């Protein structure tokens, strides 16, 4: 199973509105959860389905579960606790309320619109989160609505590597960084817990506007041109 995290900032805090050395305030966090691929093995994101889509903006939270179209592997179930039975999703053996992928993404777009053009940041966004998200949006023809709702993206993995370049830190996984900077552990395979941890981590880092601007990118330039034709699947 793979996970991806996003940090969201309101438009008033976007780096093009701040001084190069000014702190980047009011971070929020967004997380996408998908399955059937092990990120550390560099597996193909084209076979990855979204199972849980969660977001947190301060105290405001968004959370949706989706029954995956692909067969969930035993490894994915072991790591995440998710299983599929009789076309329903279970978490540690208990039924979870689900919606279609279209409903989840549409509700997610509405949530983002309420944040007034947020900047989304994810740990490993360029390599994983954006391709998975872009494929799902394109398959459902929702990419235009999504692009209109956000200001861009930030990869906190790449940000952390530059931010901590002159320290002794050599491991940049989110779990390790949370342990190092926040002195705690968290339930990494629970999407909401994961995004709360990323939000708190981002607040501790407080990167300045110049650093954020340097690692900011847009979905169309990076991903949409690379999205392969959608495979026909039961998405509705």
From TrEMBL:
What general EC class does the enzyme of this chain belong to?
hydrolase
Q: Which one GO biological process term can you cite for this protein?
A: DNA catabolic process
Q: Which SUPFAM superfamilies match?
A: Ribonuclease H-like
> Which keywords does this chain's UniProt record carry?
Exonuclease, Hydrolase, Magnesium, Metal-binding, Nuclease
Ranges for domain Exonuclease come to 39-211
As its record notes, the protein acts as a catalyst of: Exonucleolytic cleavage in the 3'- to 5'-direction to yield nucleoside 5'-phosphates
Q: Which family does it belong to?
A: Belongs to the exonuclease superfamily. TREX family.
PANTHER family tied to this protein = EXODEOXYRIBONUCLEASE III, THREE PRIME REPAIR EXONUCLEASE 1, 2
Identify this protein by name: exodeoxyribonuclease III
| Origin organism lineage | Eukaryota, Metazoa, Chordata, Craniata, Vertebrata
